[in-house]
Amino acid sequence: MTRRHFAILLGFVVVAASLAWLAEGRFKWVTPTGTLGDAGPSISGKPPATTGPIIYYRDPDGRPAYSSTPKKTSAGKDYLPVRASEDVSFEDKPPAGSAKIGGERRVRFYRHPMGLPDTSPVPKKDEMGMDYVPVYEDEAENGTTITISPGKLQKTGVRSEPVQRRTLSVPVRATGRIDFDPRRISIVSLRFEGFIESVGKFAEGDYVRKGQTLMRVYGPNLSSAAAEYVAVLNMRRGGGIDAQRLEGAKRRLVNLGLDESAIAAIGRARSVPRVIAWPAPQDGHVLERAAINGMRAAPGDMLFRIVDHSLVWVLADIAERDIALIKPGQKVDVRPRAYPDRAFKGQVALIYPHLNMETRTARVRIELPNPDGLLRGDMYAEVEIAAGGNEKVLTAPESAIIDTGKRQVAIVDKGEGRFEPREVKIGRRGEGFVEIKSGVSENERVVTTANFLIDAESNLKAALRALDQGEAGK
């Protein structure tokens, strides 16, 4: 066995020992007078005797520093020797010569404690006096299986939960801006050249209702069309009205912008009004007012802009990586910065078809009811979209996954103190759970606490097996 191999194995032994000490809730540093962290000396009043050869040296001040040869600290203190009987293992060792554990597990053979390619059918010691490590029959079937005694399970606090199918909600968060729905905005203008005789007492911000008179308007072309309509109504041919001419006269008034109620009023009066009462086209707030008493208005001039705030838009920018999670119809919680403690409920209406090249985000349009009128244009809001769909997927608690960056591992509880690390592929995360795409099956139990200790022991055993195979191949 090369010095390099010995150094690697020594490192694994130290790591496994440290993890075991942490799992028990205290460090058991051996000193010439006893064990630090213990309640006190043994019943006899004497520290337990140490036996076996010195296997390594540790820092006298309790720091995690070790050496395979005698050494001194920077302060000149000697490193303390650790003998074979003082070393600890994550698993409880069976009594020497036993072939069964609890009447169930049988020892298949014993392997060299330092990883050398040497095995024995019976218990024995190596040239340094260290006991050979037993390999059980169930471990031979699957070399990654770790067995922990009931006492160790209780000390380490190992807990497991079953893998189950559940609906996984993955919240996607973004910042949005409240905007008006352009389909709910109306501009009041004339289709003819006219004069505004008077304007109602409305200012910007006032609320108006559909049909309410905004202003009174006079226009020569409007009066001419109204006179033609009245003339057709008064004309009788054979005791009746020419329906075709009547429809043409009425259509001219409609083309000039008059609504049905104004045309009906002219028909009932059978006279041409001097001015026409111009109504509001919809309910809403007056966003802009340009009309002034006595002003001359050209065709197309904006006189009023009216906005209905009962439903508003929230335009949110979603990161490119989250686009696949967003679909129209998903529920959304919107929290305006003006009302951080209140959540407004809406839903995704549209995902715009183009990305913003500078920010690499996609714009999402959210429709939000606003019956109280609390939401105002250009407000900023925090958006949380309940993505993930309604289908059930295989999930496990997030704490059950050991994520090393390159791979993800779950520890499967096989019962009777037996555990098996498995590499898994994960998907979405949300609500404390993670989607499992492969690696474990439904209803299998996975370890949720102290799983890193089991994984560390598994890695140590795997390294020893790999070293055995490497030495044997030389």
Automatic annotation (TrEMBL):
Classification via InterPro entries: Beta-barrel_RND_2 (IPR058792), BSH_CusB (IPR058790), CzcB_C (IPR058649), MFP_Cation_Efflux (IPR051909), RND_pump_MFP (IPR006143)
Gene3D superfamilies: 2.40.30.170, 2.40.420.20
BP terms from Gene Ontology: copper ion export; plasma membrane copper ion transport
Any one Gene Ontology cellular component term annotated for this protein: membrane
Keyword Ion transport listed: yes
Keyword Translocase: no
Stretches assigned to the CusB-like barrel-sandwich hybrid domain: 186-306
Single GO term (MF): transmembrane transporter activity
A Pfam family of this chain: Beta-barrel_RND_2
Domain of life: Bacteria
Domain CusB-like beta-barrel: 312-387
Keywords: Ion transport, Plasmid, Signal, Transport
Residue ranges of every copy of the CzcB-like C-terminal circularly permuted SH3-like domain listed in the record: 396-454
Parts of the chain that traverse the membrane: none
Any coiled-coil regions, as ranges: none
Record-stated family: Belongs to the membrane fusion protein (MFP) (TC 8.A.1) family.
Protein name: Efflux RND transporter periplasmic adaptor subunit
Species assigned in the record: Methylocystis rosea
Taxonomic lineage: Bacteria, Pseudomonadati, Pseudomonadota, Alphaproteobacteria, Hyphomicrobiales
